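Researcher: Next sequence.
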Amino acid sequence: MSTPAGAVAAELRVERGRASAEEIAALTAVLLARAAARPDPAEEHCSDGPAGWRRLERTPGFRAPHSWQESG
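Model: Next structure:
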């Protein structure tokens, strides 16, 4: 399972510095292991619950510290 260095260069790009062949091989091994461990997208469960965040554009910019809105 040996590939020439030119084939690897087409798939990966080093932004800064110089990566050796061993470093690129280690990075490739980690990325492939992560991709293999990821669950199948068809099996992912989609939660129908409310979002855990608020839309900031729907709330006023300032709330008084004693406001009733903070209790909810």
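Model: The chain has a mean pLDDT of 73. The CA atoms of residues 3 and 47 lie 43 Å apart.
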